[in-house]
Fold this sequence. Notes:
- The chain is α+β, with helices and mostly antiparallel strands.
- The protein contains 5 helices and 7 strands.
- It has a single domain (about 5-165), classed as Aminopeptidase, CATH 3.40.630.30.
- It is about 30% helix and about 35% strand.
Amino acid sequence: MGHYRIRRFRADDRLAMQAFANALPEHDLLFLGRDLRQPRVIAAWLTAIEDGWIDGLVALEDDMLVGTAALVRDPLGWSAHVGEIRLLVAADRRGAGLGRDLLEGIMRVATNRALSKLTAAMTADQAGAIALFQALGFETEARLRAHVRDGSGRAHDLVLLARALA
């Protein structure tokens, strides 16, 4: 495994992001709420970054995208103080600290944005991801039964984790 670097997600990462998303197991895409394999979804993400609704980070290893983290917020809504974290790591790069580095990086962004609460949603069977978030102080706040459906129509419970920021 080579060394990776983490930086902001930008427009010229579009094709690398699509390749990354296409290589992910479909189940990993479930808790994003949108299909990241679609170019228009990536385009919308980049527009939201420009508009200040999303902060995105990418992890690159030899110019290949191996992980990404996003901080999604609604500056105009009742929950403007809350940010939702979305984290994805390439299947063959898991368990080596990359997810933790991305998560810590996006938490720093949240602190800089003066947010007071963070949330993350994932299917209940994403044990590795849940353990990672719990290790950084997140706790389960809700479990939504049969809340998401995969490509084959099977329903999965969604777990909502949260933590307060100082």
